[in-house]
Amino acid sequence: MVCSLLLPVVFYIDHNTRGTQWEDPRLQRFAGPAVPYSRDYKRKYEYFRSKLKKPANVPTKFDVRVRRSHVLEDSFNIIATVSNADKLKARLWVEFRGEKGLDYGGVAREWFYLLSHEMFNPYYGLFEYSAYDNYTLQINPNSGIANEDHLTYFRFIGRVVGMAAYHGKLIDAFFIRPFYKMMLGKEISIKDLEAVDSEYYNSMLWISENDPEELGLTFTVTEEIFGEIIEKELKPGGKDVPVTSENKSEYIQLIIQHRFVERIHQQMTSFMEGFRDLLSSDLIQIFDEKELELLLCGVGDINVVDWKTNTQYKGSYNAGHPVIVWFWKAVYSFDNELRTRLLQFVTGTSRVPMNGFAELYGSNGPQLFTIERWGTLDKLPRAHTCFNRLDLPEYTSYAELREKLLIAIESSEGFEGVD
Fold this sequence. Notes:
Elements: E1 2-4, E2 12-14, E3 19-21, H1 25-31, H2 41-50, E4 61-66, H3 71-79, E5 91-96, H4 106-119, E6 127-129, E7 137-139, H5 143-146, H6 150-166, H7 177-184, H8 190-194, H9 198-209, E8 220-225, E9 228-233, H10 248-260, H11 265-276, H12 281-284, H13 289-297, H14 304-309, E10 311-314, H15 322-333, H16 336-347, E11 361-362, E12 365-366, E13 369-373, E14 382-384, E15 389-392, H17 398-410
Parallel strand pairs: 4-5, 10-13, 13-15
Antiparallel strand pairs: 1-2, 2-3, 6-7, 8-9, 11-12, 14-15
């Protein structure tokens, strides 16, 4: 027998197991058991792990002894000064000074967690939050002003991220999608711009679809750095080259290249030098950018009740509409990894804000997860990561909805409906 208690905060009691849980077990039973995620990420991950061999002639362990109150400073002094990076591949033995305890993995896990919070804290000026939220990070193009030794720190951070992946640990940070693409050496597209800066994206989109000559643009870009407006040429002599219908594609690509690559070239180069001290670029090429995020940052536990509570509906959809009931039935049937993939598909990141889905951000500020009625039955669901919105056709059965939702998630890279 399963029953629910109607309290200000609802939880459920299963009298068969005498256990409690936040999710309604009746919905899970209705949906069936969680279906293991079949995408080949797991196979890739197993292959990746099989290629990580401890080098010969290195110590059996690598000692990391730090003060909890100075975890960034002490870790930097230890990791950045190692001349033979292969030593960092030895078993990690982490100790917080003044604390007793043996490290059988848990202390190392905590060290990566605490160190992540310090390394990626925008207070230090190395990273900054993306344009549209306060939980996805990007490299601060002006990091050199904040820290003269910034490139040494970026190499150190690259080493730490590489160590985490090598030792099967996770970092507690999530980055904009172009960051992972740069790690993989992949070209960044105009759609990647949308999830980071929708205003800039819309400007570039307008230029791509219209005649830009009336705007009087040239191959230059202006930036404000600490109150000073600076003009930079996108190519030699760019200030004298007008943007026309004939060369606008080149202009857009140079804008994207400048926005994501050139401004942080030195920082990214130093980061990747540190990362490659632990892992070769070839080894991570088996992953796409979404899988690389999972490798480095992991799959957080997703609270479906919180997700469902903080979802809004548009069109003719509402919480009681059959298609919406089927949608949440499908989500309950997914295992946590596939739920994460769905979240990535719609919002652009697997990151959930610290205080839950109520604090999701879109390009224009706070924006709840949204499902809108759209399209015909022959269409796959499509996503607007800029607005955390899933466009969902009014399918006629649960089986059809679940199948097409999975196809959309799996084929999002080449799927025309994702923007």
